[in-house]
Design goal:
single chain; about 325 residues; alpha/beta; Rossmann fold; seven-stranded parallel sheet; four-stranded mixed sheet; 13 strands
């Protein structure tokens, strides 16, 4: 099978590209390298530097059996300050990509969506039947692409899976979690534990949660990659899938930090500051549909495994 992976120099895209290659697939890795890292692209993939919104470029790459689309702006906080960038890069670019793919005869499309489409929810865990009510332009941009995919599926133009994942984390020795700029809790905390930063800043300690800090569902990047590969196959039998990808267990920021201190055996300074706009108090996934439709079983998403793998990858990255 020949698969186009956009955003393949990023954290999740590169891990998924590597898994696809290990299963005998041909992979074309497309990335603009604006935020991606060329060293992330796995050996064996055909790397193309470019923008997924470049219709002529995408069509020049030939026909694919499937596309897994990761390329996007990903920071909810940044989206509150620059919403226009998110609607341009996440929405408009996605539909230009889809236009090129459909005209080239691609039938299966796996979309990297987000739990941000749900906004704030009171009852946990969150399943796919919940109303969508994004509280950031980032979440809205993901939902807009999902809505467009639904129309494309309904007209018979495409088969599509929208993967609403919660907090990607962990890492492998070949693919540590590195973003530019970095805003994710675990890699920042590991930087502090390793002496690369002076202290860890946590946004908000007055949320309506047991310890006042946000609660999140962390899912190992390797488990995420496995779900995306399974979704390509599942689209042979399903025209449309909308699936949560999470462990089903929530951890507060304080709990994650304590786990990091335990795994690294290092203490460090924590400073609490104001909440970030757009951050819900709690987000925990119900992953029953992904288990049912994909036969997916998260294997590495215990928080101690996630942190231990992230720490090993962090140290290997220098």
């Amino acid at each position: 099978m020949k698969v186009l992976v956009t955003g393949a120099a990023g954290f999740i895209g590169s891990t998924t590209a590597e898994l696809l290659l290990s299963k005998g697939n041909e992979v074309v890795a497309l990335d603009s390298l604006v935020t991606g890292r060329i060293e992330n692209v796995p050996p064996g993939a055909t790397f193309v530097e470019g923008d997924c919104a470049d219709v002529d470029l995408v069509r020049s790459l030939g026909r694919f059996d499937a596309c897994v689309h990761f390329a996007a702006n990903i920071e909810a906080g940044e989206s509150m300050m620059h919403p226009e960038d998110f609607f341009s890069n996440n929405v408009a670019a996605s539909f230009r990509l889809l236009d090129a793919l459909i005209k080239s005869g691609v039938e299966r499309f796996v979309f990297s969506s987000s739990a941000a489409v749900y906004g704030s929810q009171i009852e946990m865990p969150i399943d796919e039947s919940r109303p969508t009510q994004p509280q950031s332009p980032y979440g809205q941009s993901k939902l807009m692409v999902e809505d467009g995919l639904r129309w494309l599926v309904s007209t018979g133009r495409l088969r599509a899976a929208s993967m609403r994942y919660f907090n990607a984390a962990g890492g492998t020795l070949a693919h540590p979690e590195r973003h530019n700029p970095e805003s994710h809790l675990i890699p920042i905390a590991l930087d502090v534990a390793d002496g690369r930063r002076d202290y860890l800043e946590i946004f908000g300690d007055d949320y309506p949660t047991p310890d006042g800090t946000c609660i999140r569902d962390y899912i190992h990047v390797s488990d995420l990659a496995e779900a995306h590969v399974l979704a390509i196959t599942a689209l042979e039998n399903h025209h449309e899938l909308v699936l949560n990808l999470g462990s089903g267990v929530g951890y507060s920021n304080r709990q994650v930090v304590e786990t990091i201190k335990k795994v690294t055996q290092r203490d460090f300074e924590i400073r609490y500051t104001q909440r970030r706009p757009g951050d819900p108090a709690e987000a925990v996934a119900s992953n029953g549909r992904a288990r049912e439709f994909l036969g997916w079983q998260p294997q590495q998403s215990d928080i101690e495994i996630i942190v231990a793998d992230a720490w090993a990858a962090h140290q290997s990255s220098g």
